[in-house]
Design goal:
With 292 residues, the chain is an all-alpha fold. The protein is 78% helix and 0% strand.
Length: 292
């Protein structure tokens, strides 16, 4: 019996460490399950946080896009408004420039009229005196007689209309009438801005009739009386053509060389160079061509 009891005691002592180990394993398993649960809860919380962050980012991007769209529309509307304003400004500027041009023409006519009125009054007084001397009972005349026998109308006092009438005669080949018209224009409006053109057209009309000496004289008056006019290069060139037709080679060469030296970038200078290259040839055109 003692031996059995001893064996039982030994068996009990042997089983005590195993029982302790099982309890530790159970405790560790419980702690592991707690850690796993906490890990799952943390993962769920992290997933929820990420989802919330994504939603917030989407909402923020949407607001940014809306803001950009509003800004783009605002800039587009502002650009349209600016373009419209710029167009209106350009239109207003063009209208202002046109008005300034018209006012300049009107000022020119008024100035020319003021300049020519004394001469008109003098001619009228002379015509009245002549009429009174011829026929004392005739009384005063209303206006001096015109070249064509008809009294000039009020519209004939306009520099533009007088010049255009003379130029129309030139364009129609009525060179004698054109010369008379341009000459009358220069007498009536000597200070007009069209005076250099009128004098030049007299030279053109003379040249068209092969009246080369008269053409040389007319072109020389352009150069002499209107040295700053843009007609001067053409006057030198066309005078050279008339001088060449007269076989005045040195004079023609001087006219052409003056164009080339003083106005090298002008069209007459290019034409004058061509004339200088062929100036020494014995043949010359009887009637130089009209100005291109």
């Amino acid at each position: 019996m003692r031996k059995i009891a001893l064996l039982a005691v030994i068996a009990g002592l042997a089983s005590s460490p195993a029982s302790a180990q099982n309890r530790e394993h159970l405790q560790m398993a419980a702690e592991l399950r707690i850690l796993q649960q906490q890990n799952q809860e943390l993962a769920a919380a992290l997933t929820q946080a990420i989802q919330l962050l994504n939603e917030t980012s989407k909402a923020l991007n949407s607001r940014i896009d809306q803001t950009n769209e509003l800004m783009r529309k605002g800039f587009a509307d502002q650009g349209t408004t600016l373009n419209t304003a710029a167009g209106d400004a350009r239109k207003t500027l063009a209208q202002t420039q046109d008005l300034a041009t018209r006012l300049g023409e009107l000022k020119e006519e008024v100035t020319s009229l003021r300049t020519s009125l004394p001469a008109m009054i003098s001619r009228l007084a002379s015509a009245n005196a002549a009429a009174a001397a011829t026929d004392p009972d005739a009384g005063l005349v209303a206006a001096p007689p015109a070249t064509g026998g008809a009294a000039p109308s009020a519209s004939d006092l306009s520099p533009q209309r007088m010049y255009e009438a003379a130029f129309n005669d030139y364009a129609a080949g009525l060179y004698t009438q054109a010369i008379a018209g341009f000459t009358e224009f220069l007498k009536t409006y000597p200070t007009s801005a069209r005076a250099p053109q009128a004098q030049f057209q007299i030279g053109e009309s003379e040249l068209a009739q092969s009246r080369f000496e008269q053409a040389v004289a007319a072109y020389s008056l352009v150069i002499q009386n209107h040295p700053k006019s843009d007609q001067v290069p053409w006057a030198y060139y066309r005078r050279g053509l008339a001088q060449r037709a007269l076989r005045q080679v040195p004079a023609a060469r001087a006219s052409f060389e003056t164009v080339v030296k003083q106005f090298p970038e002008s069209e007459p200078a290019v034409l004058a160079l061509s004339q200088l290259q062929s100036l020494d040839t014995p043949s010359a055109p009887a009637t130089p061509p009209r100005r291109p």
